[in-house]
Design brief:
mainly alpha; Cytochrome Bc1 Complex, Chain D, domain 2; 49% helix; 0% strand
Length: 240
């Protein structure tokens, strides 16, 4: 029994020595650090928005890539400062400085992943036609401007801060128009989208969202140059 006890004590001492030396070696080894690039820093965005900001299958996580940097920067500020309310984004951005948010915006604005194919249409033909009319012509009888008058004929947006509306899910577009209409999304005054959204009915919003989601991307889906479009309403976010 005494020999067994001695053997047990020896094995225990050997194990302690082995794990102690392994721990020392691990602590002594240089730590592997992530590359100090913006691509590595924004990997936290990838789960929701895709590795290149291309969007994901979740209807409520939008495409970021290729949108004007000024627009993306304004949205990051809005989430950080509470003008847009979505707790994960509000929490994530709460303590990030303006300069860093601008770098994030510029990174995603420069990305150009391919667009997904248009989503299948889920509304009837009359509703889709209404959406096309509102997007391309507006409704002068209600002072509703055409979407193309600000977002461009190809819906690719305009520099520096008007977003493209391609590659977005209908549910996301509908949710954002509703948020503007009810005041849960806002921007600096004059808030042009809030003004427009308040003129739209539920059917208008469904129609616009369905039509926009059905559009294919053009061959060169880049925002048009600043000043290319004479906007029918004043938008504070364009000049801030």
């Amino acid at each position: 029994m005494r020999n067994v006890a001695k053997l047990g004590a020896f094995l225990l001492s050997a194990l302690i020595a082995f794990f102690s030396s392994a721990a020392f070696a691990a602590n002594d080894a240089p730590l592997e650090r992530a590359p100090d690039t913006m691509q590595a820093r924004v990997m936290g965005c990838a789960a929701c928005h895709g590795a290149h900001g291309e969007g994901t299958d979740n209807d409520y996580f939008p495409r970021l890539s290729g949108k004007p940097a000024g627009y993306l920067y304004n949205q990051l500020l809005a989430f950080r400062d509470g003008r847009r309310k979505y707790p994960p984004m509000n929490y994530l951005l709460a303590y990030l400085p303006d300069a860093y948010l601008k770098q994030i915006a510029e990174y995603f604005a420069s990305e150009r992943p391919p667009f997904p194919p248009p989503a299948p249409v889920k509304v009837d033909a009359k509703t889709l036609d209404l959406g096309k009319t509102l997007v391309t012509k507006g409704d002068a009888s209600r002072s509703v401007p055409a979407c193309v008058s600000c977002h461009g004929a190809a819906m690719t947006g305009m520099e520096p801060a008007i977003p493209g509306l391609l590659g977005l899910h209908a549910d996301y577009i509908s949710a954002q128009l509703g948020a503007w209409r009810y005041g849960t999304r806002s921007t600096v005054a004059p808030d042009c989208m809030a003004q427009v959204a308040k003129l739209l009915s539920d059917r208008d919003i469904t129609a616009i969202a369905a039509y926009l989601a059905s559009l294919p991307a053009p061959a060169d889906p880049v925002p048009v140059a600043a000043g290319s479009l004479k906007m029918p309403v004043a938008c504070g976010s364009v000049h801030n």
